[in-house]
Design brief:
The chain has 259 residues and is of the alpha/beta class. Helices cover 47% and strands 14% of the residues. Strands 1, 2, 3, 4, 5, 6 and 7 form a 7-stranded mixed beta sheet that branches. Helix 5 (123-138) packs antiparallel against helix 6 (142-156).
Length: 259
């Protein structure tokens, strides 16, 4: 009896161990979007951003990834980002992703689109996303920068590839202004025609047979000065625009800035 009881006493222990091992395994598989090696996010921020990335990632069928580091150990941020993604893609088998990489030591940020995201979030659109997040990067709001990246990137990916999502022709207020202008032109034309046509002109009152020009004179009325606006650099120094290829042979769209 004692021998049998001693064997049974290990059953609950083994069950507990298997439970925890299984729990850790599930966590590693589902919570793998935030890689905050530099410790820029609090625990609560990381959990909220993980949930946000999962929500929008499911809608766009891509992984929204966050990677931070204190140092790239002599590599360019683009190369560091590429090596990280190669390793992750090979271990998970997931190739479609949007990856925001922050090198806090070098004060640089790089945003890249892999797989289907290379087309739906091309380098031009990435540049627009960077315009939005650089102020947050400079203020140290890294959680806000990643949140803005996820939401704005997802919004841009809804547009047909090749279309500028920030084009004035796509803005609701522009459509409203055009509609009001057209309405004004139509109403004005109707009012003008309602008053009848005017048939008299200045020539009606001039006797051209007995009228002569007595003198000519030229007067200087005004002058026109043309100014050309000199383009200014965008906030944050740009580098590595246009994307490229990782060491593992994966192509990507991308762009980077210093902050």
């Amino acid at each position: 009896m004692r021998k049998f009881s001693s064997k049974l006493s290990w059953v609950p222990v083994l069950a507990v161990l298997l439970f925890f091992i299984g729990g850790f395994s599930v966590s590693a598989q589902t919570g793998d979007l935030i890689y905050d090696e530099a410790g820029l996010l609090s625990g609560a921020e990381a959990q909220e951003l993980e949930a946000l990335a999962e929500q929008y990632g499911a809608e766009q069928n891509v992984d929204f990834l966050f990677l931070s580091t204190d140092s790239t150990e002599g590599q360019s941020i683009e190369g560091y980002m590429g090596d990280f993604f190669d390793e992750r893609a090979e271990s998970t088998g997931r190739e479609d992703a949007v990856l925001l990489t922050i090198d806090i030591g070098g004060r640089e940020v790089y945003l890249a689109g892999f797989g289907t995201a290379e087309r739906t979030l091309d380098s031009e659109r990435i540049d627009l996303v960077l315009d939005r997040i650089i102020p947050e990067m400079r203020s140290g709001d890294y959680a806000g920068a990643f949140e803005e990246t996820v939401i704005t990137s997802s919004e841009y990916m809804e547009y047909r590839p090749g279309v500028n999502p920030e084009s004035i022709f796509l803005k609701t207020w522009f459509h409203l202004v055009v509609a009001l202008l057209l309405a004004g032109i139509i109403v004005g034309t109707m009012l003008y025609n309602a008053g009848g046509r005017v048939t008299t002109t200045p020539g009606t009152y001039v006797d051209r047979d007995h009228t002569r020009v007595r003198s000519h004179s030229d007067r200087f009325r005004n002058k026109t000065v043309t100014r050309r606006k000199i383009p200014k650099n965008k906030d944050g120094g740009g580098f590595g625009g246009g994307g490229g290829m990782t060491g593992g042979g994966r192509s990507f769209s991308g762009g980077g800035r210093s902050f």
